[in-house]
Design goal:
- 31% of the residues are buried.
- Helix content is 84%, strand content 0%.
- It is globular.
- Helix 1 packs across helix 2 and helix 4 packs across helix 5.
- The chain is an all-alpha fold and 117 residues long.
- It is built from 5 helices and no strands.
- The protein has a single domain, classed as AhpD-like.
- The two termini are 23 Å apart.
Length: 117
């Protein structure tokens, strides 16, 4: 299975931009929800992105895996933290979560390589 997760995460962002043009009020509301949900309070932003990643894996969302792995990476998540997140998602999501969890680790490695190069 070959996926360019850097490109996929960019495509998710591009899709949101398309939606913003087509349904600006809905996307504005969704954006406000995102800001409120991810704001660091009792949990820091990195932890919240790892939680979002686990949910993305469990619900089998390719774009979610790419987008939230990138966000977790940007917030300083380590590969080990992503691996533990994958383990939790696997526990909650069963076999299909294993496929998406492996994608999260591939995505993390691609974001690390992209940042270095």
């Amino acid at each position: 299975m070959t996926t360019d997760f850097v490109q996929l995460a960019d495509e998710v962002a591009e899709g949101v931009a398309l939606l913003r043009q087509a349904a600006p009020e809905a996307v504005k509301g969704f954006g406000a929800l995102g800001v409120a949900a991810t704001a660091p309070r009792a949990l820091d932003a990195k932890t919240k992105e790892l939680m979002a990643l686990a949910i993305g894996i469990a619900v089998h969302c390719d774009g979610c895996v790419a987008y939230h792995t990138r966000a977790a990476h940007r917030h300083g998540a380590t590969r080990e933290e992503v691996a533990e997140t994958v383990a939790l998602a696997l526990y909650m999501g069963g076999g299909p979560a294993a496929v998406y969890g492996a994608d999260a680790l591939r995505a993390y490695d691609q974001f690390t390589a992209a940042k270095a190069g």
